């Protein structure tokens, strides 16, 4: 939690105003942030200086694992987070590739589970990683990448957290995740939880011990209409100790994640937090 607040404070103190054409809003911006999550000791990196809707964050990531391309499927799991990008962004609404209401196009999990090859076949990146790690193999290229520049125009948004690389040292599993663009008040609240939970889940289904998760962010920003709430409300609060994440131990395979897992299979124990803060969202 401290590292999150330090990043927010750094943006407030040292950030530079940058115009953003896509949203039409200015962002107070810093370049480069490195966050580390201790998954080995289950220090769940949830925000405590406001209420965090952590189930929606995990639901969103489970949707990526399943390769969903439709905001309605995300809603069924418990995340409304893709409604606006799928249905309210004019550039995407005008795009002939959009297949109708709720379609997100070839984003995130679609690339992760069905990257298109020139011969028409697809590559399931996640399956390969799970198979390798389960057999104790780290070929130094256990990479799940959602960033496919050749298909940017076929999706509603370029992936923000676009690369997850797994590493094995003995029987301990590590994760390094890269993010090109980060909405710190809204997105990072979710992304921290997602990086942590992804490592915990992958360790569980491959029979490894979870180690540390390393989260590397390039452009970290606060939108102009979020600044006051961050500076004058959230940053004035004192954080509570971090709670624990409990994952149903019956989740043992990638197939389990793809088929029956719901948000009831996740619990956060000992979560103490301040009042909710509703930050504006930019489409
Ligand atoms: N501008 C922007 N910021 C983002 O963080 C973001 C995007 N766009 N587009 C794609 C995804 C969608 N994500 C989102 C979208 C909405 C919330 C959000 O509104 N969160 C609220 C309430 C969540 C709820 O009620 O379930 C929050 O207070 O955290 C968070 C992340 C993260 N991403
Ligand atoms: O997981 C996510 C997804 C999105 N974001 C934020 C970062 C930016 O504020 C917008 C994306 O806008 P771009 O113009 O494509 O950079 O969404 C996030 O923080 N986390």
TrEMBL record:
One GO cellular component, as annotated: cytosol
Record-level Gene Ontology MF annotations: thymidylate synthase activity
Coiled coil regions in record: none
Major subcellular location class: cytoplasm
Gene3D superfamilies, per the entry: Thymidylate synthase/dCMP hydroxymethylase domain
Biochemical pathway: Pyrimidine metabolism; dTTP biosynthesis
Reaction catalyzed: dUMP + (6R)-5,10-methylene-5,6,7,8-tetrahydrofolate = 7,8-dihydrofolate + dTMP
Superkingdom of origin organism: Bacteria
Listed EC numbers: 2.1.1.45
Keyword set, alphabetical order: Cytoplasm, Methyltransferase, Nucleotide biosynthesis, Transferase
Catalytic residue positions: 160 (nucleophile)
Biological process, per Gene Ontology: dTMP biosynthetic process; dTTP biosynthetic process; methylation
Matching SUPFAM superfamilies: Thymidylate synthase/dCMP hydroxymethylase
Amino-acid positions noted as binding (6R)-5,10-methylene-5,6,7,8-tetrahydrofolate in the UniProt annotation, renumbered to this chain: 183, 282
UniProt cross-references to InterPro entries, sorted A to Z: Thymidate_synth/dCMP_Mease (IPR045097), Thymidate_synth/dCMP_Mease_dom (IPR023451), Thymidate_synth/dCMP_Mease_sf (IPR036926), Thymidylate_synthase (IPR000398)
CDD domains xrefs: TS_Pyrimidine_HMase
Binding site residues for dUMP: 22, 180-183, 191, 221-223
Subunit record text: Homodimer.
Family the entry assigns: Belongs to the thymidylate synthase family. Bacterial-type ThyA subfamily.
Role this protein plays: Catalyzes the reductive methylation of 2'-deoxyuridine-5'-monophosphate (dUMP) to 2'-deoxythymidine-5'-monophosphate (dTMP) while utilizing 5,10-methylenetetrahydrofolate (mTHF) as the methyl donor and reductant in the reaction, yielding dihydrofolate (DHF) as a by-product. This enzymatic reaction provides an intracellular de novo source of dTMP, an essential precursor for DNA biosynthesis.
Protein name: Thymidylate synthase
UniProt source species: Exercitatus varius
């Amino acid at each position: 939690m401290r590292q999150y607040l330090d990043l927010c404070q750094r943006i407030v103190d040292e950030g530079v105003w940058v115009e953003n054409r896509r949203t039409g809003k200015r962002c107070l911006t810093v370049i480069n942030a490195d966050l580390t999550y201790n998954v080995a000791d289950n220090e769940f990196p949830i925000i405590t200086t406001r209420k965090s809707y952590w189930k929606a964050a995990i639901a969103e990531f489970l949707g990526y694992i399943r390769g969903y391309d439709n905001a309605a499927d995300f809603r069924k799991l418990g995340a409304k987070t893709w409604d606006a990008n799928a249905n309210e962004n004019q550039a995407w609404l005008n795009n002939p590739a959009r297949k109708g209401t709720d379609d997100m196009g070839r984003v995130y999990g679609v690339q992760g589970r069905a990257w298109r090859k020139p011969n028409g076949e697809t590559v399931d990146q996640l399956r390969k990683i799970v198979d390798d790690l389960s057999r104790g193999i780290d070929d130094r290229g256990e990479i799940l990448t959602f960033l496919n520049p050749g298909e940017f125009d076929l999706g509603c948004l370029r992936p923000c957290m676009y690369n997850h690389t797994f590493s094995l040292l003995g029987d301990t599993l590590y994760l390094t995740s890269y993010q090109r663009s980060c909405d710190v008040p809204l997105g990072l609240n979710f992304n921290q939880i997602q990086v942590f939970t992804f490592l915990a889940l992958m360790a569980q289904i491959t029979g490894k011990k979870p180690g540390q998760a390393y989260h590397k962010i390039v452009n970290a920003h606060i939108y102009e209409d979020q600044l006051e709430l961050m500076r004058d409300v959230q940053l004035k609060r004192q954080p509570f100790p971090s709670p624990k994440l409990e994952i149903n131990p019956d989740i043992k395979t990638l197939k389990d994640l793809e088929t029956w897992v719901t948000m009831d299979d996740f619990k956060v124990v000992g979560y103490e937090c301040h009042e909710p803060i509703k930050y504006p969202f930019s489409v």
